[in-house]
């Protein structure tokens, strides 16, 4: 299995970053209008690869929503005073580090796609990032993804429905989830689903150093590889927070960043939408290449999932496995 390792040179470089600039803005106003900066990103091509090294980082997750909390081992940096930066990250120096504001909004193009997501896809696709999948090859295709920060008792039911309906989904998990729910992780793998990387400790990736961001991805990647013999290749940034720099980092780590073109307020178990209203919400803007973000802690999502899948298929769409 492929193992991601953190090099000492990498650490020295990340600690030396200074300065940042805005990447532009994609936002939906209260009236549904969306603004966009037309000069968003430099033309940069990055060849995905992982540097060879003999040192690595390993730590466990600690989040407010996760059921377990453990001490994390710190990343050792014994050459932080080096003046020469690691060539592995040299190409990131001029990339924006500020969080890019975005949201699908309420404006749609003639094909039903959120306009903001189309713009985002056009501007950041070169960093292997997806907000909506564009192109003829995605016509009639839908991608179903679930975020798993902690287990609330509904994932087994969701997996049962997916197995019954023969649908493959992506489950984005954190490190504490992987440690506390090994049987569910194994079941996801055995039943043909994609297990995605949702970071080790669920931080806003734009508010930590690249050293820490690298560790967030690598720690979980290595744990899943070592304990399940499975190599992750999709990453969902916590909170959907990204910068041009973090997208480039993930791409260089051989990951595709997966955001979404549909989401709704389903993450609070204490404030669940009524089933019929939720069904109308999730089926109200179907479009080619749609990426659904649903939360597996939602009782409503578990209850309506079968009817939702049937309805989507009746509209002529197919659910596809998310291939990098």
Please, could you describe this protein's structure?
With 324 residues, the chain is α/β, with parallel strands linked by helices. The protein has one domain: TIM Barrel, CATH 3.20.20. The chain contains nine helices and ten strands. Strands 4, 5, 6, 9 and 10 form a five-stranded parallel β-sheet that branches. Strands 3-8-7 form a three-stranded parallel β-sheet. Strands 1-2 form a two-stranded antiparallel sheet. Strand 1 and strand 2 form a beta hairpin. Helix 8 crosses helix 9. The longest helix is centred in the last third of the chain and has 19 residues. It is globular. About 24% of the residues have low confidence.
Gyration radius over CA: 20 Å
Termini distance? Answer: 17 Å
CATH superfamily: Glycoside hydrolase/deacetylase
Estimate the strand proportion.
5-15%
Largest sheet: 5 strands, parallel
Low-pLDDT stretches are: 6-24, 27-85
> Which fold name is given in CATH as the topology?
TIM Barrel
Number of strands: 10
- Name the overall outline: globular
Work out the helicity level: 25-40%
Order of helices and strands, N to C? Answer: HEEHEEHEHHEHEHEHEHE
Architecture, according to CATH?
Alpha-Beta Barrel
Output the number of helix runs: 9
User: How many domains make up the 3D coordinates?
Assistant: 1
* Name of the top-level CATH class: Alpha Beta
**Structural class, from helix and strand content?**
alpha/beta
> On the 0-100 scale, what is the average pLDDT?
80
């Amino acid at each position: 299995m492929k193992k991601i390792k953190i090099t000492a040179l990498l650490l020295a470089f990340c600690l030396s970053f200074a300065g940042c600039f805005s990447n532009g803005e994609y936002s939906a106003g209260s009236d549904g209008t969306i603004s966009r900066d037309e000069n968003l990103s430099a033309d940069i091509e990055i060849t995905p690869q992982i540097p060879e090294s003999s040192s690595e980082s390993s730590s466990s997750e600690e989040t407010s929503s996760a059921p377990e909390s453990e001490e994390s081992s710190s990343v050792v940096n014994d050459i932080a005073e080096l003046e020469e930066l690691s060539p592995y990250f040299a190409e990131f120096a001029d990339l924006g580090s500020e969080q890019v504001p975005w949201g699908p909004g309420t404006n749609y193009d003639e094909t039903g796609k959120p306009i903001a997501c189309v713009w985002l896809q056009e501007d950041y696709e070169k960093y292997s990032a997806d907000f909506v999948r564009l192109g003829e090859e995605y016509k009639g295709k839908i991608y179903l993804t679930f975020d798993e920060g902690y287990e609330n008792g509904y994932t087994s039911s969701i997996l049962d429905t997916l197995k019954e309906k023969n649908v493959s989904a992506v489950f984005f998990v954190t490190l504490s989830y992987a440690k506390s729910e090994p049987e569910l992780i194994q079941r996801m793998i055995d039943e043909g689903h994609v297990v995605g990387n949702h970071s080790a400790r669920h931080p806003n990736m734009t508010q930590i150093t690249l050293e820490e961001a690298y560790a967030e991805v690598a720690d979980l990647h290595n744990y899943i590889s070592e304990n399940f013999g499975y190599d992750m290749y999709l990453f969902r940034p916590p909170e959907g927070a990204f910068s041009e720099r973090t997208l480039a980092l993930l791409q260089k780590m051989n990951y595709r960043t997966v955001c979404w073109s549909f989401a709704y307020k389903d993450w609070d178990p204490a404030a669940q939408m009524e089933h019929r209203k939720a069904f109308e919400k999730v089926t109200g803007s179907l479009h080619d290449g749609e990426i659904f973000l649903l939360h597996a802690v939602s009782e409503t999502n578990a209850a309506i999932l079968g009817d939702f899948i049937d309805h989507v298929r009746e509209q002529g769409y197919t659910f596809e496995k998310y291939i990098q």
